[in-house]
Design a protein that fits this description.
- By secondary structure, the chain is mainly α.
- It has 2 domains: about 190 residues, Four Helix Bundle (Hemerythrin (Met), subunit A) (Up-down Bundle); about 30 residues.
- The chain has 8 helices and 3 strands, in the order αααβαββαααα.
- It has a 3-stranded mixed β-sheet with strand order 1-2-3.
- A hairpin with a 3-residue loop joins β2 and β3.
- It is globular, with a radius of gyration of 26 Å.
- This is DinB-like domain-containing protein.
Amino acid sequence: MVRTASTWQEAEENIVSCTAQILNQAIEILRSGAIDDASYTFSSRVIAGSTPGKHFRHVLDHLRILLDSIEAWQARSSSVLRVDYDSRMSSKVAHIETSVAASLREFERTNSRFYRIFEGSKGELYTQPLRLCATTPFVVEMDSTVGRELWFCGLHAIHHYALARVMLVKERGLEGIDDQFGVAPSTLVHREWRRETIRAGPAEDSLQLPATTAQRQRQAGADQRQHSSPRHASLRSKL
């Protein structure tokens, strides 16, 4: 059963855990050997200008910008925390979008760095206000928090994993790509909830989905047949 976090610390711990799981989706798939460099750099015929490697690199760029911004703000202590994803430069790590091994090392490094930054925060970083800069093409600023941006980076990663999955499985024809790769955390929770509901069986207070038109028609037919049965006719004759 899904419940709401009761404290900022609990909320932060859950968001950090969820983001770490999303990072681990990439780490596990890169470690598995299911993707070689040729598949990693495969140019999609469906998504113009895309390769799986570019999507993995793009995910890392956004996480790196958020973590860089947090560390720079911590070093300055009193200054305003600013995050600008549009100012990203090409990745500092050579071959990150062309080499599975280089990408794996960077995902592992980012995961360790991520845990180090949030260690001992106890919810303080989660609620830390920040100024988010966006180019629209005019530069505009808006209020956000570290927790909100961490969640954005996680969902942003899932979106790009899903695109990479399409290229790897549907276009490249790779097998061995985990079924959960590129699936949103909320979807995984919903799937688990459905499995538990099926195992537990129907309950009196369980949520009932609206009947489909076909189901309503079948029920109406059954009611009509029952109403016109000899037993019902006999009862009506006695009234």
